[in-house]
């Protein structure tokens, strides 16, 4: 066995000595080509997906659905109110404001006071309510004139309570006379809109003048709660 290993080992130097110069260069070229194509093939077989695994997919901007747009509009509608600004302001009209707005915000939105405005008794800090009428009286305007314009019940003032369009207290002359008031004057009462004002006028035409303020409860749409809110601001002179 040792002699065989020695024999094989002895053939290698003999082979290189006899044929080394003839086959050495071609052998090197063949081996070089082999390794070149071998490694090139391995690189081409490597999956390319790993290269892009760390690159996040471009996020698409999603447009809001119709439902989301509708919900957004509803939220806006729920947080806004509409008020009617009249009288001695530069730009009288109907304005939309946020639900937490104050009287001063509505007046400023209407351009501010005109030169002949009487703003002394106006409560600028009062919180606004939807469908509220804000009337700014002119200097020297009489209480009766303010009532006729369907603004407020209190002389030369705008709404000054948290719950309505009139003040909590008023003199007898400031109250709305159920037997003489027209639709516009009736609508200055807190909680009385066009339909209730027309119902009051219809009742008066059909049944005659109101004898007591309690007769107002006989009008369609006027319940006990509404009457209690109106009691201090109506009369039947």
UniProtKB/TrEMBL annotation:
Annotated Gene3D superfamilies: Outer membrane lipoprotein wza domain like, Tex RuvX-like domain-like
Pfam families reported in the protein's UniProt record: HHH_3, SLBB
Annotated region (Disordered), positions in chain: 154-173
Residues in Helix-hairpin-helix DNA-binding motif class domain copies: 184-203, 214-233
Range of residues in the leader sequence: none
The keyword Transmembrane appears for this protein: yes
InterPro entries noted in UniProt: Competence_ComEA_HhH, Endo/Exo/Phosphatase_dom_1, Hlx-hairpin-Hlx_DNA-bd_motif, RuvA_2-like, Soluble_ligand-bd
GO cellular component entries: type II protein secretion system complex
TM segment ranges: 23-39
GO molecular function: DNA binding
Keywords, in A-Z order: Membrane, Transmembrane, Transmembrane helix
SUPFAM superfamilies associated with the record: RuvA domain 2-like
Low complexity bias locations: 160-173
Biological process, per Gene Ontology: DNA repair; protein secretion by the type II secretion system
Protein name: Helix-hairpin-helix DNA-binding motif class 1 domain-containing protein
Species in which this protein is naturally found: Viridibacillus arvi
